[in-house]
Amino acid sequence: MPAKLITPSEAYLQSYLTVCRDCKARGITAYPLHDPDDFETWRHTIFQSYENKHLGIGLKEGRVPSSTFWLVKGGEFIGEGNIRHCLTEALERYGGHIGYCIRPDYWRKGYGTLQLRLLLAEAARLGLPRVLITCDEDNLASARVMEKSGAVYQDTIGNIIEGIPTRTKRYWADTVPCPLTPPKGKDQKWTSSA
Questions:
Q1: Does residue 193 sit within a domain?
Q2: For residue 22, what are the domain limits?
Q3: Cα 86 to Cα 55, 67, 95, distances in angstroms
Q4: Fewer CB within 10 Å: N-end or C-end of the chain?
Q5: What pLDDT digit, counting tens, does each position of 118-175 carry?
């Protein structure tokens, strides 16, 4: 069964929780998954929270409407992606339109590239013809995912994130209007399923 991008679903909640626990245990904090220790607090509100963010309801100051998607395969949660519907000045410097993560045991297997390409298709459906994607300068894997997905490097800028100086690479990508099928072998290319 191929991986697919879905609206977050109760069917994958336990798998999502497992990934939250794994990321916390490994000290992976680059992407804000839920705190597994607070599961009983957010388990009944997570899906409504995603819907509210999509509709722009109850957003914190400085936040913009966003759509969240889960990459799943079989019964497993593989990754999460978020598309911000517009940019603020802060998001133009750090964060951009799209953020994403892949569970650690699926790293280096092409799922980051697949997820980003599927998120670009969703961004097109949201009416975004072009999106900004950023990563820390030392996050070489994320930069490779963006470049493999057709994003074009713009520049690297200095930022202060939570009081820590950091260098941020910024890329722009045209969105794609259709889902993509991953290659089956090393020598094959991504293809459109439309």
A1: no
A2: 4-186
A3: 13, 11, 11
A4: N
A5: 999 999 999 999 999 999 999 999 999 999 999 999 999 999 888 989 999 999 999 9
